[in-house]
Write a structure and sequence with these properties.
about 80% helix, mainly alpha, about 0% strand
Length: about 230
């Protein structure tokens, strides 16, 4: 798995992708920092992470995941993955962890906003840590969706569109009806953004991620058998 992780991290940072993602993410953080903290005179940073998760992941997750398997298939390097001694589980988890590392780097940088706010008040650092924990969980869920979409096609654009469409539905489905609140990703994150660790919501996000990770493994295993 380490070999896959290193390979994927190199592909992100030896190309513009990793830097573009971090730049877009930090732009989102900056915009929502202004809207939720500066304009309201608040020291609560929960809204900053909530709105970045709500709108930022729709852009970031597809960029990070659409090439994962689609590019391998298009370039003909998928055969190396399918015939390698590394288990498909390790391949999938390695790719997922590499994408998550890019997001984690951005989260660490976003901690600068906490220090900025300390000049004007006393923000609750635990709220920030809990919001970050929830952000990691909802990011894994979003990335797992994109990874599954990438495993279905060799066209990166199609994989990206599928991911965006699914995330828009899953993040904004409560706007259609409260009946869908139990399957809304952002609904699972709301309490984390408020500084409350919800075991129920954490388990829901983990199960959601496990579902799409498992589906990705199944798709790739079937391709391995066909090959």
């Amino acid at each position: 798995m380490k070999a896959i992780l290193k390979k994927e991290l190199k592909s992100y940072f030896l190309s513009p992708i990793g830097y573009v993602v971090i730049g877009i993410f930090l732009l989102c953080f900056s915009v929502f920092f202004y809207l939720t903290v500066i304009t309201s005179g608040s020291v609560d940073l929960g809204g900053l992470y909530y709105y970045t998760a709500l709108y930022g992941l729709i852009i970031i997750a597809p960029i990070l995941t659409m090439r994962m398997f689609a590019e391998e298939r298009k370039n003909g390097t998928e055969q190396l993955l399918l015939t390698s001694p590394i288990s498909m589980f390790k391949v999938v988890i390695g790719k997922l962890m590499a994408a998550l590392c890019v997001i984690a780097i951005t989260l660490l940088i976003s901690f600068l906003f906490y220090f900025i706010v300390t000049f004007f008040g006393e923000p609750n650092i635990m709220t920030v840590f809990v919001a970050m924990l929830g952000f990691i969980l909802i990011s894994i869920a979003s990335l797992s969706v994109g990874m599954f979409a990438s495993s279905l096609t060799e066209n990166q654009i199609i994989a990206g569109i599928i991911t965006v469409a699914f995330l828009i539905i899953s993040l904004f489905i409560t706007d259609i009806s409260n009946l869908f609140s139990s399957i809304s990703l952002i609904n699972f994150y709301t309490r984390f953004a408020q500084g409350v660790i919800s075991i129920e919501n954490a388990i829901s996000l983990i199960l959601f991620s496990m579902l799409f990770i498992s589906l990705t493994i199944i798709v790739m295993q079937r391709r391995k058998l066909v090959k």
